[in-house]
Amino acid sequence: MTRFAVLVAGTAVLLALQAFASPSGLSHEPRLRPPRKHQPCDRSFFAYVLPRGAALENVTVVRDGDSYGEGEANVAYPKNPTHLPPLCAVTVRVKSSATSSYRFGLFLPDEWNSRFLVVGNGGFAGGINWLDMAAGPRYGMASLSTDTGHSSKTTNTTWARNQPEKKADWGWRAMHGSTVLGKKLVRAYYTQQRLSYSYYSGCSTGGRQGLKELQNFPDSFDGALIGAAAWWTSHLNTYVTQAGLYNLPETDPKHLDDDDVALIADEVTRQCDGLDGVEDSIISSPDLCQPNLDTLLCPTTNNNPDPNPNTDDNNPPKCLSRAQLTTAHNLYSDYRSPTTNEFLHPGLTPGSEPQWYVLINGSEPSPYGVGYARDFLFDTTNPPTDPSKNTTTWDWRTFNETVLHHAETHDPGRATADDYAALAAVRRRGGKVLLYHGTGDGLVPTKDTELYYRRTVEALRAGRRWWWWGWPGSGSLGGLWRWDDGGVGDFLNMFLVPGMQHCAGTEADAPWSFGAASQAGALGNDTWSVPGFEDARHDALLALVDWVEEGRPVEQLVATTWEDPTDPASGVKRQRPICAWPRRAVWDGRGDVDDADRVGKGIIASSTGLLLKTLGLRVSCIKIDPYVSVDAGLMAPAEHGECFVLSSGGEVDLDLGNYERYLSVRLTSEHNITTGKAYLNVIQKERRGDYLGKTVQIVPHVTDSIKEWIRRVSKIPVDGSNEEPNVCIIELGGTVGDIESVMRHEAGAGNFLSIHVSYVPTVHGEQKTKPTQHAVKSIRSHGLIPDIVACRCETPLAESTITKLALHCQVEAEQVLVVRDMPTIYQVPLLLREQKLIPQLRTKLALDQITVSPEMAAQGTALWDLWTSVVTPTYQDEVKIALVGKYVTCHDAYISVVKALEHSAMTIRRKLNLMWIDSEDLEPTTGGGAAQAKYHKAWHDISTASGIIVPGGFGHRGTEGMMRVTKWARENSIPFLGVCLGFQVAAIQFARDVCGMPEATSEEFDAQAKDRVVVNMPELDRQNMGGTMRLGLRKTIFQQDTEWSRARSLYGGVEVIEERHRHRYEINPELVETLEKAGLHFVGKDETGERMEIFELKDHPFFVGTQFHAEYQSQVVHPSRPYLGFIAASAGCLDDVLKQEPVERFKNVTLLNGTK
């Protein structure tokens, strides 16, 4: 008797940017230890432990819920943090020289987790940053901030005039001295705990302070979160003056006022918003944005060739003069020496315009620049009204590049943090650094952080590699570089945050909050982390803690914004992933682009089936879908995703591909039941007279038909034996609210189990159970009682949440499975096994009554051992693959291709870095702006790829781009794999380029063309499209004298193989001889010898095309052979793979690290 496990989608869930797995790993909150004994919070204790030269200013016991700070007396940070946890607040003053001193504040929480956090300052501000410090105790950390040795607002620099010691305090000394003494006080205060880890968080000047401290004293911090660092003090602060001068004087026709800048911002957004594939008012790819502002140029007349449109203050300008456009161009451009063209400082990025007012608003340049030159460099005053009364002045109107060189030479206070090589010491001691910068920053250009990162990589000898070549289809040369960080990523990562302004905030509704410096304070006096998302996935500081303490690299974060960007109570508006450079987040075209998660029950179904197989049981799967289509054959890949092809030729839902990949089974088209199939089955019976004399209705005729279908199909052998399955898993498609998805289930105890899959969101820090409660209530109303409730969630559920779910869903706590995000979806079976799903399956399905042979039990054990070995990441390196396709806006259109690449990469212990490239973007364009930027970006990505794959598709669109990239791979010895359409276009391009057929094409593209390298199949039915292609498992025979073939070697040198097909067009047999004489060898053909199945270039590292879809048979523990060869060639280890014998299912495959 076959047992049934049914999985139901119980709630309508938010779909989003990413797949089930979180590439950045598990969310991880700081582990709080119970309170330990500490010294009393009183003056006598601290006065006793302070060294000479340090004086105690204040010690205060802060009780739970109290506020603390210095209020208006602290001109730099007048806002006091509120609702603090119980702690001890300490203020200390330290004499740094005969003429200077600095202060620092210390928060010592009652509940301490052995961590210490130092926070930075901003601008020229002089004051203790109590508001940022307050985050520390809320994380369980002791925290510290220095006042940098003076008291002033952020733009005030007069305190520095003729005060070299105060400049030194601001530049580096106050931060270092405060950190050293602060650690001493922490160690003294907590007598029974050791200080285990020290962290730093700062932005702008705070970012510079952190880098400077690490460069001078690498053992100060174990981890540092560095934002928008104003690290290049000598160049940045002088550039700020130059930026202001571009727009002065205010009476000059070149001047841009606020309305002018707003006009520019709107036009740049119009041109560049969609470069990332999403139109959302956020310029997420400013590096691709090359706006053509001539679209804003006012029309000229004979009398007024360059009009200034700003003549009516009541009406915003609709166009700009040439002089104004030059001002904008200067702000975007790098600052270079007008005499030598020497690079002096980066310019601003497109998208930063809403914050330009900081640099160009007013009658003189920003005080960040003027004040620095006047009070730090020249120690003078502003020009007096009567110059004869004061000769010690500096006039900003006299600014030129000599001021910058003067700053570079003298570097007041030794503030500049440009000792890039010094971070080698941080790396040696195991320290970690996260750099971040908003691409909408209008104060410190985003390129400053990029420049620091690149120079650090170069200084640590990580290497930069360059090629020079002509853009395809152009006559000019363009420089493309390929970046190799040489392993610097093991301690230093950089994140560029689309649309975020300086340190925090946005004018484009861009997600900007991720637990970085100053961000919680921007939300209020009592917030910390990211309200509602206090975990390592959404909070960069917690992610840094994970990296330092758990060894989990920070490859991705999720940023958040709200309906009111600074009010979390207004509700989440958007969440987006941000990736460690050079990767970038790209929307996959599915679900809600503003939600960073996507939920899928198919993985839970497949994982449950795998666990059952490890018991030695035979497992089958059925997918029931609500759509009326008979099958998936005619559905649009860009909307529905991939049409998966079975060995029998059935075209089915892509979830059946998941089942086959996880369970190593071969399913039939009958394992995918659709509403269309069910109705068609009943209608055909009615036409045959099976219901003669009866009124045919949904109940009982359609329902009985479905039940009979399930009983029959569940008994079909699927594992290569002739044995019926022991267990059949049924996945029901749709969500609550889809009337066509409402099903009735009838089964007895002992042979039926229901798993309800639901989503438990976290909102404002609270795990919400109501959606799951309502969903379970709904399905119970139909008589279906869940045996297990599988809860999808980002982070582990609290015990109280599990208890609440169990109570309201009327199940026991152990029946609630917590399916949290995992580093890879292939680890979900490990998670379910850890939560003891197997014992529940044994009990509910009476599995102990099933006789399992010793051979099957041994196979199950071997399968689990192999699975855990393959899916446990022990990556040696990265392999970067460019996937060039027609449907890249919907990644699920190529899901089997992606999975085959993943399986192969896991097998050779490489981490797959997959770049999605629209083939149309590779085709030359005469347009400018966004189209040209996409073209250059696409070819840039191609030039950085280790391997190129062109998968299948239909139609002419984008095929010229495919041909160009096949030529690139062929001529530059880049590993290449062409599948189906990719196979065909590579042959067409070869015919054009090598065989002297410039008009070569496909009959699919031009039925009347002379040189049709690809033709339609003779038996093609053009009237009835469904199921009329060459489908299913077909034989391929390797030809004589092909022992040299790498493709054949990957299959173990056998003569005959079987792979699955799905195509209507094929290589023209009349042109095969011509192509082969020119060097394109068709090493594999069908039984007739007339159909070409595999081509290969002999003198190329790996240039292989297959008419068949080898990806359809790829499995987690048994990767597709062509894909494995392609990935291995791209990773440089093909010879190692060729030495291995290909294996059958259930047999061990040797991994490259020697494990079984």
Low-pLDDT residue intervals, each spanning 5 or more residues = 9-36, 387-391, 462-483, 588-592, 595-599, 734-745, 1143-1156
CATH architecture of the largest domain: 3-Layer(aba) Sandwich
Distance N terminus to C terminus? Answer: 35 Å
Strand order of the largest sheet: 2-3-4-6-5-7-8-11-14
Look at the helices and sheets and give the structural class: alpha/beta
Rg calc: 33 Å
Helix content: 25-40%
Number of strands: 38
Q: Please describe the biggest sheet, giving its number of strands, its sense, and whether it closes into a barrel.
A: 9 strands, mixed
**CATH superfamily assignment of the largest domain?**
Class I glutamine amidotransferase (GATase) domain
The best one-word shape is globular
Briefly note the CATH topology name of the largest domain.
Rossmann fold
Quaternary status of these chains? single chain
CATH structural class of the largest domain: Alpha Beta
Q: What share of residues are in beta strands?
A: 15-25%
Number of domains: 6
Summed over residues and divided by their number, the pLDDT gives a mean of 84
GO molecular function: ATP binding; CTP synthase activity; feruloyl esterase activity; identical protein binding; metal ion binding
Function: Catalyzes the ATP-dependent amination of UTP to CTP with either L-glutamine or ammonia as the source of nitrogen.
Pfam families: CTP_synth_N, GATase, Tannase
GO cellular component, one term: cytoplasm
